[in-house]
Amino acid sequence: MRIFSGIQPSGEIHLGNYLAVIKPWLDLQTKNDCIFCVVDWHAITVPYEPKNLQRKIKEVATIYLTAGINPEKSIVFTQSVVKEHTELAWLLNTITPIGDLQRMTQFKEKSAKQIKNVCAGLLNYPILMAADILLYQTEIVPVGQDQKQHVELAREIARRFNAKFGETFTLPQAQIIKIGAKIMSLTEPNKKMSKSDKPETRIGLFDTPEQIKKKIGSSTTDSGKEIKYNPAEKPGVSNLLTIYSLLSDKTIKDLENEFAGQNYQAFKQKLSELLIEKLTPFRDKKSELENNPAIIDKILAHGASQAEKIAQQTMKKVRVAMGLL
Length: 325
What we know:
57% of the residues lie in helices and 7% in strands. The strands form 2 sheets. It has a 3-stranded parallel β-sheet. A two-stranded parallel sheet has the order 4-5. The chain is built from 13 helices and 5 strands. The chain is mostly helical.
């Protein structure tokens, strides 16, 4: 099946991004036709530093490779290099009601945070995402829970286009993992872990062992002493158990049994050790690729060439269907 997904090169890519989005990609790439994009067009819909953008793009690509994305099996590239993304986005603008965009939860949340800088790009973000997906005739889009609504809109846009201009696009479906689809903040466990919050609320993939120990040690737990999964009554411990489970490949029930009778301090210490073990390769790989930047450049250039061929085929169909060719 054709798979498409991507991450923005903005803020600090954290553990929540990895567990909810990138880690599930690894199984998908073994049996599917996968395309993984660094979505830099999306990153500029909010305030950003132009001088840092290329560094952040390389950083995201580094995370993909370190996590286990194989550029010999999957296409890895930067969104803005393939011009067909924005071409298709404009054409999809012409058939998308503005009311659909104004109802998007993410638009409401982000526009509330940046009242003085609500650009048209932020409103049209879902159309560009739809173009990303439809351009490659995507069947499955593995995303976090917060992006499900956008994939549903992409599906509706494809259906509307096909009805108006003839069968052109594959109708995509979102794939969301059941456990870990939303990793919560370390300090506010009723709130999703976010790039835009303070550093102590999240584990960065390049955090040092000292930073990891400090963040986990000061993370919010709950009243009582029992290490039990109960998001409604014990959101802090439940969030840490979810992280532990996904990193160790142990079930939450097994972890509850393993730590039965132990206190939060002992549990946090073991979780810190596990995180340090799992994240050390990310720091090492980052250092290696920073010393050999040509490796990333070559992989992204090759991926863009592959993506462009597929994108051009789709755009030829779109242009013919719309009477533009």
